[in-house]
Amino acid sequence: MPGSLSKPLSFWVSAGVVAHTLWTSAAPAMVYPLYAQEWSLTPTVTTAIFAIYPIVVVAVLVLFGDVSDFIGRRTTMLLGLGSSIIGVFLFVIAPNVATLFVGRVFMGIGVGLSAGPSTAALQEFAGAGGVTRASSTTIIAQAVGFSCALLVGGFLVEYAPLPSRLTFVLLLVLLVALFAVSWFLPENKRDPDRHWRPRVPGVQREIRIFFIASSIAVMTAYAHGVIITSLGAQIAKELVRSSNVFVNGSVLALFAISLGIAGMFANRLEGSKAVMWGSVASIVGMFFLAAAVAQHSLLFFVPATAISGIGYALMVYGGLAIINPVTPENVRGGVMSALYLLAYLFTGLLAIALGKMATVIDIATATLLGAGIMVALCVMVILLVVRMNRVQSTHTEAFTSQGA
Question: Would the pLDDT of 256 be above 80?
């Protein structure tokens, strides 16, 4: 019956829902070249298959971003998982590219409904040390989902039968199992006097400066996903000139593996410091990526993905560690959804732009442009965090003076 899971077990089931958001997002990454070959697709079309997903996520977050604050985390996560199951099933049976677009729409609905509630649920089920434990577990869960999508996907594409189908069959089975376990999650407390209506998730004035810094950090981190999941396999094949899909998937999975390792140790840093160090790591990763493209070298591509993963982990952890402690529980689902809304909106637009450039000019130019945009965003994040720290310090000094 609903609510029969213990709090510790509920925490890990919620982490599984977080993991599904990245696995579902990255699941087609290693299959894009197969689709391009089988149906003669251009980079514009393959990146559009990727981009329709974050665009739908954004639409769902705009309309339903705070719905879990009203109908409950469990109910919203179940609706999200159900939609993801439909989307993955469509990829299993897809006879044409149109079916892939419909499948990505359902995946986007699923992740849009479950991303915010699952992150909020981790915070609420975390117990002692909730903020740091929930933030680091979010990163590790994302890393597990991302790395499984790339490693398992790369292995099945290279060595298994039905290379464009089997990876989605496996994911479908896992999602059905996760849905079944999530059915027994307890429901969070809700205010019966509050009534839900579709609206853009709001952010209270008193936490707005923290939200801006954290959301831009998470948005920048998610921009890594455009390069890794929408273009990564084609970069490895066409620019780095590595023909083994499993090797390429393993190199791309270094992003997720280093992401997970960094996430395990990120809780030793304050949120603002984690964001700043993550920005520096991402800048270094982008320079290695530019070198890999220029030299057609796997030697540079390996550190590019690994160091970028560290940058992603520290920026997402730091962003969540900045916003979580200052967000009231009764609006946490909406605030988390607003944060993801900005991240997914930007990645969708960036994917479309880079895909168009890869088609009109070439993939090398698109990759270098993406790396340049990432560097600019990281510099912006560093400046924002410095500004946030100064404002916070000023408010603290003023409060201390009044108390004296």
Answer: no
Please give the structure tokens belonging to residue 83.
């939609």
The per-residue pLDDT for range 182-202, each reduced to its tens digit, is 999 987 666 556 666 666 666
d(CA 179, CA 113): 14
Taking CB atoms within 8 Å and a gap of at least 24, the contacts of 36-44 are: 36/234, 38/164, 39/96, 39/97, 41/97, 42/359, 43/231, 43/234, 43/355, 43/358, 43/359, 43/363, 43/366, 44/355, 44/356, 44/358, 44/359
Q: How far apart are CA 142 and CA 146, in angstroms?
A: 6
> Per-residue pLDDT averaged across 235-263, rounded?
70
Give the model's pLDDT for residue 194. Answer: 62
Tell me the domain boundaries of the chain.
Answer: 7-186+201-403
- How far apart are the C-alpha atoms of 12 and 93, rounded to whole Å? 31
CATH superfamily for domain 7-186+201-403: MFS general substrate transporter like domains (1.20.1250.20)
Q: Which of 310, 280, 334 is nearest to 120 (CA)?
A: 334
At which residue do the structure tokens 């869960």 appear? Answer: 141
What is the pTM assigned to this prediction?
A: 0.71
* Cα separation of the two ends of the chain: 55
